[in-house]
Amino acid sequence: MKYFTEEFQTYGHHIDMSQFRDLELMAVFNEIKDKKINPLWGIQTGGTIFNNPVIFDNLVCFGSCDKNFYAVDINTGKEIWRLSASGVIVGSPAMKDGVIYFGSYDGNLYALDAKTGELLWKFPTEDKILSTPHVYGNSIYFGSKDGNLYKLNNDGKLLWKFPTHSSICSSPAVSNGMVFFGAGDGNLYALTLEGKLVWKFAAQDEIRLDIVIINDTVYCGSLDYHVYAVDMNGKGKWKFRANAPIIAVYFGRNRLYVTSRDNNLYALTLEGELLWRFGAEHMANFPLEIGNTVYMGSDDSNMYAINRNTGELVWKFSTNGPVNSRPAVYNGVVYFGSWDCNLYAVDAKTGKLLWKFRTSTGVPSSVELTEAGKIKIVETVWQSEEEEKPEEKKQEVQLSDYGKIESDYTAGLSKDYIKGKKGYV
Side by side, which strands form the sheet with 178-182? Predict the structure, then answer.
């Protein structure tokens, strides 16, 4: 079934579909949340923007599930160029020296000229690519659903690949002469830069998406509800438990931000102690700290701005679909994509809409869920505008019973801030 988020025309009349709630889509997201299903490999073709934009030379660059990679003018939202892949683009891009790298579900890693969108090269793997590439020196590291971590040179030539025999949607990170990444087999891997295994650390479920390295400690989240802190020798320092699988781990000034399928954003010290938590109305997604504000999208269709020091709501901006994209912030503007097929630019202080750009199709992506090798079918139900709408939930910050340090890992962490670049663009 096709579902719409703004308006469509029938028999000469325009119907505003924003007054209807797409219960089919929300049923899918509830299924994902309640049964710990990993939806990432099942996203289908549509106009949805799932990944994080990058900014280069007054361009906002991002991929879409309509199989296109776009660059739009940072001030107006006008399209400058696009490049078509052969599969949906879910994973986020990386950029260095004017070259954009991204993977697609067609199995290729693409390298583009950021100014023109010209394809420089593409490298084929054996399955879908969700992993965000990590560019280090003249090399590009990324994973694939085919179970391999790849290292290419900046001409797109294979230097080596490391097999794990499980899907890799984790984004690798390089530090101390090693490359770190998580995999679907529940292991955090550490390899030499020549692709040899140094050690692996076992969680109890899949490790995916961000790997954060601060002061010689590796932080990662797992579907087993835990955030892990691991030293450079592969030994656990501590672990923090949320009330549902971990979605993302990200760094801030002297702290970590953790989001979970329990709808919460957690702010932790580098020693794993809870500072505050912020509750969204549905699954919390990818956070970003800029100055004294943390920006975070949610499956409740909102982009939130949250006070870094108190965890209190500053503003929220509502879209017509889940917001899975981590935002980019530049010159006081927040840029992010939504499941509703739009890239938004909103004022970072007020949350006021400046412009939005719509992808090539107004039909959002569907999600094919599988569990134990079986396709999960979600019944479609529609709610009309005449039905009573629930009251809007107030955002609260509580420190009661959410999250705790488990004492089987000891050893502390340095309180110095992350070495290297600060902020995110």
Answer: 173-175, 178-182, 187-192, 197-202
Identify any residues that bridge with 266 across adjacent strands, giving them in sequence order: 258, 277
What is the end-to-end Cα distance of the chain in Å, rounded? 37
The answer to whether the CB of 345 falls within 8 A of the CB of 325 is no
Show Cβ contacts of residue 379 under 8 Å, excluding neighbours closer than 6 positions.
27
CA distances from 382 to 2, 11, 15, 389, 391 (A): 12, 21, 15, 13, 19
Question: How far is 373 from 363, CA to CA, in rounded Å?
Answer: 27
> Would you say residue 16 has pLDDT above 70?
no
Cβ proximity of 359 and 44 under 8 Å:
no
Q: What is the pLDDT of residue 85?
A: 97
Query: What residue ranges in 215-263 does DSSP mark as E strands?
Result: 217-222, 226-231, 236-241, 246-252, 255-260
The predicted model scores a pTM of: 0.80
| pLDDT (average), residues 127-143 | 96
Parse the chain into domains and list their residue ranges.
21-406
| Higher local confidence (pLDDT), 14 or 46 | 46
Contact at 8 Å (CB) between 113 and 107? no
- Please spell the DSSP secondary structure of 148-192, one letter per residue: EEEEEETTS-EEEEEE-SS---PPPEEETTEEEEE-TTSEEEEEE
Is pLDDT at 44 greater than 90 in this prediction? no
Query: Which fold does the domain 21-406 belong to in CATH?
Result: Methylamine Dehydrogenase; Chain H (2.130.10)
Strand, helix or coil at 378?
Answer: coil
Q: Is 138 helix (H, G, I), strand (E, B) or coil?
A: coil
- DSSP-derived 3-state class of residue 18: helix
Assess whether pLDDT exceeds 60 at residue 392: no
How far apart CA 176 and CA 170 sit, in angstroms, is: 19
Q: What amino acid is encoded at 278 in this protein? A: F
**Strand pairing partners for 179?**
174, 191
- Token pair for residue 115? 């100014």
Q: How confident is the model at residue 107 (pLDDT cuts 50, 70, 90)?
A: very high
Q: Are 363 and 45 in contact (CB under 8 A)?
A: no
